[in-house]
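step 4 of 6: structure.
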Amino acid sequence: MTETGPEPGAALAGYWEIHCDATLQALVDGPTCPDLFRRTLTGYLSWHVRNRTTIERVLTTPSTAVAWFAAILALGAEVRVEGQGEVPVDAFLERRIKGRLEALHIPLPRPGAVPLEGVAWGEARVARTHSDEPIVSAVAVVEGGEPVVIRARLALTGACSRPAGLAKAAAHLVGNPLTLDTIRDVATAVEAEVMPKGDFLGSTEYRRAMAGVMARRALEECLAGHNTETGTGCAAHGSSTREGGHGR
Amino acid sequence: MGAKLESITITINGEPKTFTVDRSETLLETLRRASYFGVKNGCKSGDCGACTVLLDGQPIHSCMTPAVRANGCSVLTVEGLSQGGKLHPLQQAFIDCGAAQCGYCTPGKLLTAKALLERNPDPTEAEIREALSGVLCRCTGYVKIIQAVRRAAAVLRGEEVPPFGPVHVILPADASPAQATEHYLERTHSGELLGPLVITPPEMPQLCVVGQPEAKVDGVKLVSGRPAFTDDIRVEGLLYGELLTSPYAHARIKRIDATRARALPGVHAVLTHEDLPRIKYATGGQSYPNPPPLDQVSLDSKVRHVGDRVAIAAAETPELARQALRLLQIEWEILPHVLDPEEAMRDGAPVIHDETDTEGIYDAARNIVHHIEAEGGDRAAQWARADHVFEGVYRTPQQQQCHIEPHVCITYWDENRRLVVRTSTQVPFHVRRMLAPLIGLPAKQIRVIKPRIGGGFGNKQEMLLEDLCAHLTLATGRPVRMEYSRQQEFTSSRSRHPQIQRYKIGVTDDMEIVAIELYLIGDTCAYGTHGLTVQMVGGQKALTLYNAPYSRFVCDVVYTNKPTPGAFRGYGAMQCYFGLETLINEIAGQMGWDVVEFKRRNWIKMGDELLIAKALGEGREGFEQQIRSTGLEQCVQAGIAATDWYEKRARNADGRGSLTEPTMPRSDILEPGETGATRLGQGGHIGPIRRGIGMAVMLHGSGIAGLDMAAATIKMNDDGSFNLLVGATDLGTGSDTILGQMAAEVLGVPLDDIVVYSSDTDFTPFDKGAYASSTTYISGGAVRRTALAVADQIKKHAAAMLGLESTEGMDLRDRQVFAADGRSLRLETVALSSLHQLDQHQIAATESNLSYECPPPFAAQFVEAAVDTETGQVTVERIVMAVDCGRVINPITASGQVEGGLQQVLGFAHCEEMLYDEQGRMVNPRFGPYHVYKANEMPQLDVIFVQTEEPSGPFGAKSVSEIPMDGFAPALADAIHDATGVWLHNLPFTPEKVWRALHDRVL
């Protein structure tokens, strides 16, 4: 329990609610924390940083937990703003909405489900080292796929002026089977859709190229089917070959 | 001030404490104000973790936590870790494993580990690394910290733990270390907690204290968070000094008006260039006379880089001092600037040092500070022998030392009207000498005290704050404290000289290197400090490793408008080795030679003279040098065995990148019906990840021949113990401990009986300071001589007590002095007699040491890396380093030096670089964007020592502190080539750089 209410995440009908004053660490420690969250909240973010950073802080300053922000974008999360109801996170960011942030809602495939059950997700990033801030990162969340994709969302960081959902690119998947060919089409569409801003970590050209590569890799991970939130078989975050996995 | 004050109550280490705080005050500030000095300041931006405390059991960065947030909470600091005077198992494990080097990050590590073990009593290594990733360490490479946490976890689980120490293997120098190495690595890779492997020749006698893994003499105070560092002190009447720095890369101050600044209540002094005498000096802490040019003054009317000094203020609070500086009215004349050294040398480039009172600049109009030429051998004859000529251009970055403790200095008048300078410095005696003329005081009126230093790595081999702080104390009559912010550490302190190296190497068909030429451009940026000596050391080390019959060194040291480099561990050698060893590796590849055999054929051997050493000293002519000890062959053999070098190179050559096994990487999933074999036929690999292995060999030096001098004093106490007073500065290197071990060895006592005190210009004899890898060799030599002199006095007095005519056959051991006839006296008895009873006198001695030799330590470095060929991201997976540093005085502290050095060179080669925009402003002046390696991304580090006996060294020792820096970069370049077929010449190997190189080549 946190001081301010129930566990950071509570599965309510139709969505999973996370209080915005919860810390990222409380989210990671929670029994219902999805592996996608664990993976995008560790490595480049330390325990210390997670202890001091609230969900509200990330929503207002995505750079504080950039890969996780991409994850909630890709999940189609909404933020409940006091007096204004639920606003999609991408719209909240774009419109710079002011107000007290009460809760984050993650839509669930079916009411009461374990969070994210039935969806496949993939995540990829490139950085100077595997625990550095990502230069470009991507999260893909796909529902369906066999025979066709029902819903797909793709979010990238480091490829536009702020973290962004790439609806146009993701739309290439909907209604089609999830195959390497369709994934490559999406990657090409991503490279066309992004508008990266270069800096000392990566030029515009590099970021654009990596946007395509990361999007492709995230979707390939969905295709591989390892990352479905059934509580088993989820991909480990390979941060060291000593643990048997290789960092991305 | 108009501050909003609030009363808060925090339970600190079990005791409720009430504070009145400003709402903007951080928990760090509150705790340090309340004298919890174990909570350290490192960055004030939540990046380094030195300020870690447990807030309601959770590790947090107290610098990012408002004090009011802790109201009603419980806070645990390191001072609360031990209970009833008994160290917590974590603290004991840190001591046992040698996990505290400088100790500055130690409290943060301890507290985080405590929180981890409370939630997870049996964490894996990966979990420990992940948990500790929020506390940076620049000294240890995290190896012994992880080992300590694992050990403590076992103790807390009630398990028995064996003593922690090195693994010794006796092996003749001409025997292969392969089996010993493989056996050792089997044990460590299976999870056994072991110190380094130490391979020892059978003729090397085992000693009692020297060579033993003694616990550090300062270990308890470091793990307890005792107030040991410069800023861990309350000073009555203290004022806070702040520094205003330039926002421009190159500008003149046309007018500066401090009227409004000085009028601000609470401000006691504001000083500009108009207030201080224009006395020229160089900031580098080097022996007298400082190498020219003396191109700086304390505050100048011209600024030469963003971050250059403009003015200083002293006030009741830091905020007031900063406010005063903001009130300065400055009229600038902005001048054109130049950031690239090659452009700076061209005609028409902005002239950075156009002042008329700086002598010793080689060509000020072209911004060339120094031009150096040296050669050895017959140029025409040797080039004529070359069957093949190879050339290459290599670039190394400007890297920052990133010691966790910032520069900090406190100056005050003592009761005798002497100026006391309490400062985090590696060079207290140089600081005293250099400071005196700047402030108009004779050296006898200045006392410099060096407390514990929280890392330096060369950046504290400078006088950076001491003169400013002293000026403010002189102006105000009050104690003054100054500290660099973390941003100022990047923009206003020192760093590593970036270099451009052009190598030309001639070889014969039978693998002989006949000629090496190096044209070096050393970018000394805005000021010349260390500019001459760094480049000369680089040239000397690079041109003596293979000791070609002809070698030539031409160097231009160039001014540019960037923050000034200075001394940084490695000191030119590691930069020059990058180019040299990479080209050597390239030559072997192009010629189809076994690279190890090629290097073996040519590296300097026992008995060889270092041909260019006399021509290329360090800032002056050197001395002839001859190799009198070398374990390089065994180092290479150890590395080959440890890494299965030949098997991996062969496999990688076949596939140009080993296959990822056992599962298919998801990034290249096969279509239905497609097989691995089918895909192999198309591309030669499966997946974008390719692995490679590389190697390099290297030598360094031990002190500066004919220049470095150290002294030591030992006096005997009533109880038979000894005080050892050394000017040598322990900056986390463990020098207090190893010097104590040397004294203990000679005096026949345990280390506990040696009380070490360093370094204070009033009480300790001269030592030039901690640089040039001199402490073990030079300072150690002084300690040994002094201990022998004291031992001699003890024997004489004992002989008198025993009625013996001579001391022949007497020896000291087990706290006793033994006569040849078997009688013995306890040292305590001798001490009491000498002080109170018989021919009363103080048994004490002071001896100095200087050497005209500079025996090189040798090493071989092997690196395994994986390259993501789609992104350019390089992951270093393993480093094996085998080192010959002569006799290893303390295997735990020595291996700590190697492991810590490897963390720094990982950054040098892989990710660290000070970067600037077009206006000369640094774009990444913070730990996060700059990125130093954290605990959870370090590769596997395996350290092996191959002991030799250096005849000129104390107990046969050579240096160990800088050799770890020298070979990683070329070894990584070699590994990347082995993986991808691409040679990279431009450090660091960032993802985009690698990606461009790979895609230009079109794999």
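step 5 of 6: annotate
 - The mean pLDDT of chain B is 94.
 - Chain B touches chain A through 53 residues (CB under 8 Å).
step 6 of 6: archive
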